[in-house]
Amino acid sequence: MKKLKRLSVFAMLASVMVFGAACSGGEKSAETTNGSKETETQLEGSVVIDGSGTVYPFMAKMAENYMSNEQENVSVEVSRSGTSAGFKKFLEKDGTDYNDASRQIKDEEKAKAEELGIEVKEMKVALDGITIVINKENDWAKELTKEEIVEIFLADGGKKKWSDVRPDFPAEEIQTYGPNENHGTYEFMFENILEEKPLVEGINLQQDYATLVDLVAKDKNAIGFFGYGYYANNKEKLSAVNVDFGNGPVEPSLETIKEDGDYAPFTRPVFTYLNVNKAKENPQVLDYAIYTMENAQDIAEETGFAPLSDEDIQSILGELNELE
Q: Which pLDDT tens digit goes with each residue over 187-204?
């Protein structure tokens, strides 16, 4: 099915490829299940992606598979400057082809795209859960209510020491950690969980997620937040807090991180945004979009995200095929 879908797009793009020497390629024959031969278009050129550090593991794996298994003559470059910083690069006259994002595009970013004449296509690729992480030696805060978590991270929450959260917790200073303002994860925490109230003074905010993992892993009194995937890949270093949203503690997992799952209050979709202008001009850019959605469910599970439904996938694939 994947091959047939892309072949229909290749037929549509044939005329574009004639005029775009830099993006054109050759052909190769592939044997079908009934022994006949069919021709697959081989593409050349580049695909440039930046944006969300949360989405980075998903997109890096997708790019690796695409270059290894699908189009070996296409170079896919994936960077991770953060959602907001990535949108700045995306919304330039000769910006990136895609911007990965752990939040939806903002009105002012849409306005910038319109000003530049850039048509933007939103592609939801997976579901993520904001995961609250603690040091492995922390044996007292393995379960917290949503309200306790909010109070810990709020500037006016009044929770300076662990014993301020619960009297039987240690009388030790709480050390808070999180991604900085470049990241959509920070914005989701600020806007959706803390309801746009200031974060606690002195919180240690970092650009790099690997740095956050190491900082929490070395600090017994640490508590931090980031996407589930980074926790899933570092379970030997960190513990995840089970969150009580009112019906008992819920462990973040691929089973609970769903739009209607038990972890739903901390669940969010993650995206990549496509520059449609470039997709129409460069066959490999559109081909990569289609490949991404065809393989999104498998790559999501491999990289610590909950997969989208079949209906969501088919809906986005249908929209991509209409770009002709």
A: 999 999 999 999 999 999
